[in-house]
Amino acid sequence: MLKPKVEKILNEQIEKEGYSFFLYLSMASWAESKGMSGIAQWLYAQSEEEKMHMLKFVSYINERGGKAVLPAIKQAPGEWKDVFVMFDEVLKHEQYISESINKIVETAIKENDFATNNWLQWFVTEQVEEESSVQQVIDKLNMLGKASIYLFDKDIMSLRTPAN
Ligand code: FEO
């Protein structure tokens, strides 16, 4: 049986995972509408993972004799300046989620709920992987950004109309 403090904080995580699901879905849709189908696919896959995370919390709370409460989920943004800004937001969001998982672990330990602590370790590992995978995307984008400027630098003079 879950203790009330543990049940409450686990329920709060349903909203956070649900928001992650909609945030990445919104990003996927934005990328798709801009013709970036590969990035859209990456984000659609990411959003599916978040839905799975949310469902894991729902099932776990119910399985342990609690009651999962499905929350209202706030509106996710729908526009980004560019993909650099968008992926920075993904990384910041994942760091926020990692902090949130850590707080649940802390609560479970304080409440002597070792089963929940044990169950949460999957999420602890998952967050390390997710942060690292987004960081890799950002690193590659930054490298490509520099390469694009290098290529443009070689090309810019060709844009001048010759002086008469
Ligand atoms: Fe479920 Fe990426 O946090």
Number of domains: 1
Number of helices: 4
Radius of gyration (Å): 21 Å
Strand content: under 5%
What distinguishing features does this structure have?
164 residues, binds MU-OXO-diiron, Ferritin, mainly alpha, elongated
3D structure, described in words:
The chain is mainly alpha-helical and 164 residues long. It has a single domain (4-159), classed as Ferritin, CATH 1.20.1260. 77% of the residues lie in helices and 0% in strands. It contains four helices and no strands. It has helices at 4-33, 37-63, 83-110, 114-155. Helix 1 (4-33) packs antiparallel against helix 2, helix 1 runs antiparallel to helix 3 (83-110) and helix 3 runs antiparallel to helix 4 (114-155). The N and C termini lie far apart (85 Å). The mean pLDDT is 95. Bound molecules: MU-OXO-diiron.
Briefly summarize what is shown:
By secondary structure, the chain is mostly helical. The protein has helices at 4-33, 37-63, 83-110, 114-155.
Topology:
Elements: H1 4-33, H2 37-63, H3 83-110, H4 114-155
